[in-house]
Amino acid sequence: MSTSTLYKRIWSCGFVITVIVGVIFRTIWIGDMEYKGDERWLFEETQEFSKTGHLPTLGMKSSAGILNPGMSVWVFIVLSKLFLVIDPPELARAVQITNIVTILLLPLFISYCIDSSEREPWFWSLALVCVNPLSVLFHRKIWSPSVFPIFTLTMFFGWWCRSSPWGAFLWGLTGACLGQIQLAGFFFTAGFLIWTLLFERNSVRWIYWLLGSLLGSISLIPWLVVTLQSSRPARRPYIDLSFYRHWFNMSLGLDLKYSLGKDYFDFLSQPTVAGKPIYLVAALHIATICVFTFILFRFIRQVSKEQPLSFDYLIGRLSNSTLAIGAAFLGYGILLTVWVAPVYLHYLIILFNLPQLWLAWMAWFGSYNRPQYRRVSRLLLTVMCICQALLTMSFLNFIHEKQIIQGGYGTTYHTQQMIHNRIPSLLP
Fold it and tell me: What is the DSSP letter of 54?
C-alpha cells in the first residue's frame, strides 16, 4: 500500500468518525432540549393543526417585529406528521434527524458538484460543522431557523447546476422558500442573486429561475397582504456590523454566551476536579483563537504574494466555491449590515457550512501543489476540529448537569416537566 493511499484511508476514517460524533452531539440527552416561548408556540401550533386541520397563514413575530410567513410553521406541521409527533421531544428529534440527514447528504453534494481539486476544503467544512458548538446548539432546537440547513443545501444544489433548466428552477424555488421560513432568508437569497448577477450572470438559465421563484412565491401572497396592510413604526437607519462578528463566532463556535448568559463564565471555568475549576474550557477557547490567528496570518502572507489572484479569490471569481463564500460573506453580509434592524447570531444559521468552508478555504489557500503546506493546513484544521468537539462536549455536559441556565437557554424541558409534575426531589 502506497503512502498516499494510507493517508487517504486515515483521513477518510477521521471524517467518518467526525460525522458519527456530530450525530451523537445532535441526539444525546433529548430531555435537555431548550423549551421556551418560541419552541412551545411552534409545538402547540402543530398540535392545533392535528385537532382542527386549520393551516395558519402567518407565523410568529420575528426579531424585526414583523410576522413571519406561514411556511415557518408549515415545515413543523409536516415534520410532526412524518414523525407522528405527540410531545415536544419528538418534534425536537424530528428537527435533529432533518439536520443529520442534511449532514449525510453534504458528502454526496461534494462528490457530485464540487471539482475534485476543491473537495478537501469542503470535507473539512463538513467535519467542522459536525462538531461546531453553535451548529450543534441550533440543530437541536424546535425553531424555524433550525430547519434552514436542508433548504440551504437544496438551494446550493440548484445554484451549482444553474446552467441547466432544472437547476435554475430549483434555485429559484428554494430561494423563494428560504425567506418564508424566516425573514433573514430573503436577504440570503438576495445576496446569492446579486453576487451571481455581478460575476456569473451568463451561467444562469434565468427564465427557469424566474419560473421557480414565482412558483415558490405563491404561498407568500397571504403574508404580503397582511404585511402591506399593517402599519409599523419607522425605524431609524443605521449600520450594524454585528454580522461579521457573528460570522467569526459562527465559524469558530465561540459565542456560547449567546445561550448561556450569566452562566457563561461558570462554563469557562469547567470542568472541576476535586471541587476546584481547572478552566479547560477557557483554554480551549484560547487554543481555538490561536489556531485561527495562525491560519489568518498564513492566509494574509499568501495573499500578499499572489495579489491579482487573491483579489479574485476575495470577491469570489475563482470558482463556484469562492463565489458561494463571497455571496454569503459579502452579499448577504452587506445586505444585513445596511438593513434598518439589529443583526442577530441566529440569522447565520441559514449559512449551514459556509462559515466553516471559509475557514477551511483560508487554511487551504496556497496549499495546492505544495505537500508541506497541505500537511500544515491539515494539522491546523485537525486541531480546530478537536478543540470544537471538546467545546461542544463540555457545553452539552454543562447543560446536562446544570439544567437551569441563567441565560437564553433557560430551564431544560426535562426539568420543566419534573417541576410541573411536582417530583418530590425538586420541591423545597
Answer: P
- The grid cell for 390 is 471538546
Q: What is the 3-state secondary structure (H, E, C) of the chain?
A: CCHHHHHHHHHHHHHHHHHHHHHHHHHCCHHHCECCHHHHHHHHHHHHHHHHCCCCCEEEECCCCCEEECHHHHHHHHHHHHCCCCCHHHHHHHHHHHHHHHHHHHHHHHHHHCCHHHHHHHHHHHHHHHHCHHHHHHHCCCCHHHHHHHHHHHHHHHHHCCCCHHHHHHHHHHHHHHHHHCCHHHHHHHHHHHHHHHHCHHHCCHHHHHHHHHHHHHHHHHHHHHHHHCCCCCCCCCCCCHHHHHHHHHHHCCCCHHHHHHHHHHHHCCCEECCEECCHHHHHHHHHHHHHHHHHHHHHHHHHHCHHHHHHHHHCCCCHHHHHHHHHHHHHHHHHHCCCCCCCHHHHHHHCCHHHHHHHHHHHCCCCCCHHHHHHHHHHHHHHHHHHHHHHHHHHHHHHHHCECCCCCCEEHHHHHHHHCCCHHHCC
- For the chain, what are the domain ranges? 3-426
pLDDT value, residue 178: 94
| Of 388, 377, 348, 344, the residue nearest 188 (C-alpha) | 348
Q: Buried (b) or exposed (e) across 349-362, using 16+ Cβ within 10 A? A: bbbbbbbbbbbbbb
> 253, 388 in Cβ contact below 8 A?
yes
**pTM (2 d.p.):** 0.91
Predicted pLDDT of residue 236: 53
Q: What is the pLDDT of residue 205?
A: 94
Torsion sign, CA atoms 90, 94, 99, 104: positive
Mean pLDDT by 10 residues, the chain (428 residues): 67 88 95 92 91 83 76 93 92 96 95 89 95 96 94 95 95 94 92 92 93 93 79 58 92 92 92 87 95 92 70 68 92 88 89 95 76 85 96 95 91 88 54
- The one-letter code for the residue type at 35 is Y
